[in-house]
Amino acid sequence: MTSPLKASMTSLCVLKIKKIKFYPFSRNLVQRDRFARSVEPKCILYMKSRGSRQWSEVGRTERLHNALSPEWSQQMVLDYYFEEKQVRRKG
Length: 91
Hints:
single chain; 91 residues; mainly beta; three-stranded antiparallel sheet; 1 helix; elongated; disordered N terminus
């Protein structure tokens, strides 16, 4: 016979989550349009949900003017799940 304490401990599922801060930046962007007067980059971060095939938007930065090596001041706070594959992409 197992004790009630031991049985309840085995049925618990512990999920290890940590908050991380993501500070986006980029270096030496290529100006695609030669005739454009300004470059206005922004960063959009996408992440796949657990068990899903669709990408969902996690964060978006402000648009900067005339910057080919932008450093955005906005930070994105993300959930990080230990021991789990997490797929992200920047757009």
